[in-house]
Amino acid sequence: MTDSIDVKHFCEKVLDRAKALGADYADIRIVRRDNESINLRTGKVEYLDQSSSYGFGVRALIDGAWGFACSPSVSDEAGERIAGEAVNIARASARVKVKDVKLAPVEVHEGSFKTDWKIDPFDVPLDEKIGYLRDADEVLRQDAKVKVTDSFMEFYKFNQVFASTEGAYIEQKKVESGAGISATAIEGSEVQTRSYPGSFGGDYSAVGYEFVQSLELIEHAEQTAREAVALLDAPVCPAGPNTLILQGSILALQVHESCGHPIELDRVFGMESSFAGTSFLTPEKLNCFRYGSEAVNITADATLPGGLGSFYFDDEGVPGQRFNVVEEGIFKGYLSSRETAIQLGQHSTGAMRADNWNRMPIIRMTNINLLPGDWSFDELIADTPDGIYAADIKSWSIDDKRLNFLFGTEIAWEIKDGSLGRILKNPIYSGMTPEFWGSCDAVCGEDDWHLYGIPNCGKGEPAQLAHVGHGVAPARFNNVRMEGAK
């Protein structure tokens, strides 16, 4: 992490200082984070950022209240000062606490852990990355009706140490890579966009540059542009109840918004309601509420290789876990922290994460996955006499309890007599979360299942961006309210 200090000795000194000042519990995270973002717009480099961040943060618990302080200077002087500030803030917080913070027990772990990658994206020359994006962009702009194009790559490298007064000392290293392209066709007042491999940033995985190579952006650019142009003259999606089959990336968002957020236990308790509100999944619903049909099985899984929501330990030293969130339609589990889990008499499910050294950890999604069913995609289409197949995110809105939602997709195809037909533009669908998932009667199998990476899940105040994952396969929903935006 750095050659200038003995990291373990530094952690011990800071934690000893916090204890000497009266902390009942304290932990420290030292984080180095590297980031590179490249965006070409219509053939020119629109945005290029290469940045690094390094620092540490200390949590202290005194008299049942938290204090947190941080510094970009990882030095003995800063360590002593920040430990004192965290303790002082905890004491001040204790004067206005509503109730005592208590922590669920956790087994103490020590060790060093690293995800797997073949090609370090930070070792790939910048000219090579830009050249690859420029080649994809040229293919996107071959049709004169495509007026705006975007191609982008983004890479992260995390190097983190966690230590606590309970004796934990955990080192973790992780690399993430992502890329995507989009084409916007314009004719008169009509504007249509298509994206690959997903909208709003493409797709990401916790591996190296080999993931970008596997996306084959250049090979998919022509079809992406062709669909954007075809949408200009396509009929508007018809209004009314319909059978809806959702493609992977839009279904990943559906899982994210209507399942991932409402199972965050801090939100359930009203402790963290900024940005996305609270939750309809209140504690009395645990193990008995029908969230969806028997075809709906959802897990939280921080152990999946390649997942942006995967890790060995969370920011409280709790091991990454896989557990059922929804089992045959019944709600089974929350994402929790040590502080929230103990309020339900449970152990933490290991979901506490901060987006950098200068933020307190809060409960974040891991990889929230709709488990695969038994259908192939071709079987699902052939089994649908009349319906709509919709793909990729265009817009989304959901209320503060995660119940009422309205999503728009980039494109849809009419399904008639078990076959895909005309392209439809501006599709919108809406519903109530339990009714919508209750209408799911089929989920495609492992061959069509994909783990999508999302690096920009916003939550908290000050705002934090979490990197999360959603594994899904296309699924069918019945009697869904649909319309086409004018």
What does this structure look like?
It is a single chain. By secondary structure, this protein is of the alpha+beta class. Helices cover 21% and strands 40% of the residues. The protein is built from ten helices and 23 strands. It has helices spanning 7-20, 76-94, 126-140, 210-215, 217-232, 248-260, 265-268, 338-341, 377-382, 433-438, and strands at 25-41, 44-62, 65-71, 110-114, 146-164, 169-187, 190-196, 203-205, 240-246, 298-301, 322-327, 330-331, 352-353, 362-363, 368-370, 386-398, 404-416, 419-424, 427-432, 440-443, 450-459, 464-472, 475-484. Strand 16 (386-398) and strand 17 (404-416) form a beta hairpin. Helix 1 (7-20) runs parallel beside helix 2 (76-94) and helix 3 (126-140) packs parallel to helix 5.
